[in-house]
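Let us work through a complete example step by step.
Step 1: write down the sequence.
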Amino acid sequence: MAPVEFDVTSLAAILPPGGMTLVSGCSAESAVLADSIEQAGEALGAMTFSGIFVAGLNHRTWLPNAASRMLTFFMTPELRASRAAVDFLPLCYSDILSLLRARRPAAALFMVSPPDQDGYCSFGTQVDFIADLWRDIPVRIAHINPLMPATPGHRGIPFSEITAWTSSEQPLLKSADDPHDAVSSAIGRHVAAYIPDGATLQTGLGKIPGAVLRTLVNHRNLRLHSGLVGDPILDLIAAGAMAPGASATVGVAIGSERLYSELSNPVFNFQPVTVSHDPRALGSYRKLVTINSAIEVDLFGQVYAELTPRGFMSGPGGASDFARGARLADGLRIVALPSDAARGRVSRIVPPGEGAGPVSLSRMDVDLIVTEHGSADLRELTYQDRAAALIAIAAPEHREALSSAWDGYRQRL
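Step 2: predict the structure and record it as tokens.
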């Protein structure tokens, strides 16, 4: 059956009732489709929606009526406010993919570029899960957005395989590049000291990852293999720091209009989760360096990255997948964070077991912890030496309290 152009007011008649619907999130969230879901309201019944949503970027709840539910793996303030209708699963990316395959969504709502000369519609800035799953989803509903760039790498979906479509222009959701400051710049310099020419990097979005990438403009033959890419990659491309060819393998782009306008550059290679988060693919790289952020690190070297004072922000995400890949590659696993918070009142290096929430990365998943005060190389250290190395990079005003806490704790060892 040929794809059918539909009026957004008739979406309830196309969606299968009662099942799960996978929706585009991140920078590819469709306001047209979200509005249509809201307008359908009670007609949709007890449906479940699921996707990848980013706090501060994605504000829709995809909850059209009291019987509907949201299955999410990341929390936004809007979803937290609707917690009675929200199922939050703290899963790593490989397990998210396994869960979605097992639950077999009945429908997908996604944004794509217009079809190319071969009839393919690119998934554009969000390739991650939909590119792996669309063939097994019976009902495929597309918002064809002329402003969505056709990104290099995964070809996308043939227009002929789309069930129903609508077309309208919508600017992609944007995220301002975090301005660097003295703390993030110092962290970036400390991390850069461990990155050789020819390295393959994994990192995410935010002030610290951006600061790290900006320190590398004089490096050469760098590669990126990551779930996310933002504006700082453009500085590396402009400086000639990236290796020739398709040297940036990513699943999602979130950034400014400048980033979106340059995604046709053949340096980019957009691929689904089965590539971007595959430990075996990561394990094939030489000089792989993973760089992830954290909320707190304890004196054992355990990393806490999910629970904030405002509540859960996410599950473990992709960090554990990348840690496994770096282990296979005999690479280097770096966790970077400021030494303190709340204007210096709170240390982000904490006594053993006193981090907030669950452990996101175990002490076996991390090689280096970096703050603005330096780096703690935890490899092959005793517990005593680990604690001493971490206290040395804590904020100076908190080191005495940490030393006292460790002295009390080690009596139990």
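Step 3: interpret the result. The CA atoms of residues 87 and 243 lie 42 Å apart.
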